[in-house]
Write a structure and sequence with these properties.
This protein is an alpha+beta fold. It is 71% helix and 9% strand. It has 13 helices and 5 strands.
Length: 433
Amino acid sequence: MDWFTLLTKWLSPILCFWILNGSLAWLEMYFFGKFVRQPLKWYHYAAYILTMYFIYGAEIQMRVLFPVSTLLELTVLFIFGCLILKCSPILSAITTILTISVMQVLNGIFQSIINLACTFLFYPHILVPVCVILTLVAAFFSYRYIAKLFSKKAPINWYMLNLLLPILFILLVIQHIFIIHGDPTATLSTGDNWCMLLIQIIAYFCLFSVLFAYRKLSDHYELQIQNALLEQEINMQKNYMQEVQTRYEKTAAFRHDIKNHWVVLMGLLKNGEIQNAFEYLNKLEAASDTFSFFCHTGNIVIDMLLANKLGLAQQNGIRVDCTMKLPGDDAIDNMDLCIVFANAVDNAIKACNTVKEGDQYIRLSAVQKGKLLMVEIENSRSVNDVKRKGTGIGLQNIKAVAEKYNGTVSVESNEKIFKLNILFIISLHSDSI
């Protein structure tokens, strides 16, 4: 036996136990933090790597069954996610099972390759360092792909069981194979190694097929929710537009009869009935107030919408300031404008309701510069509003409308003020129609 063979035999246990297991434990912890979107400290990595050294060492020295050591790993990761990172039990469970499943499948694949190499290579130990490096590289890119696949956070609810159960089944299959064929580090027959290699490669691709399918199902589910909410918004805006039409007809009728009102007033004044004339004027003023708008934007539909919503705001003691001029010529569809202002004002009113009386306000402004329309909606808020959840859908609908017109939405906020800036690029939208 030459010096090269002695060196590789001496290095193989060190690489397999210390370097490989330590590096894989680091990758597991890194992926766990990325998947649940929680920052990790250096001592998190150190504690987990030392725990894995203890588990692997006990497995070797005490000849602990492989499923038992796997159960210990699952328990450690699950407890870490729940207690340290404060993850929900569902998210911690799926991340734990996914992390261990990927790692064990890859370890099994390269272990089978090493065992097969012992049969066909003259210096089989030379393959051990190569497989160690390949295992690390494969684990890194596998975890990276999964993290990228779930870069858009999937909904955390009981539907995640659709992802948990298939992955758990794959992990149980791997454990069953190890129980039947013995310890994965033991020397198996050539046929058994080929069988294990094939099964684990299939398991690896099945694992990623499940992840990809779940990602698509989650996107489809989220899209259905958004479409349902958007449809609800559209129906609501249709009702507003019907109210606009009714109010416009009433206004036209009032204007048509205004000459008759002047005739009556002139008659009362000529006859010296001053008191009756004042009473008649008060009635006319009350009637005309029902047709007035808080905003005169140049768009009757939006004027009506804001009259209803801002009227409700004023009834709640909220100061309203509206200086907007919207473009005509159907530059922006009325339905789109209704979605934007209805959601924005509704959210502003909710935020103002968390502010003490006297400090509540909503300020709306819009200005057109060339083919750009800039809308700014500012409102007061409180710490309670900052902590309040459930207002994200309206903002998503606003962003969807802005993107339709090649525009953008930006938010400026602190504990006292929330400001929504919306930009519409009218020319680009007109060109695309």
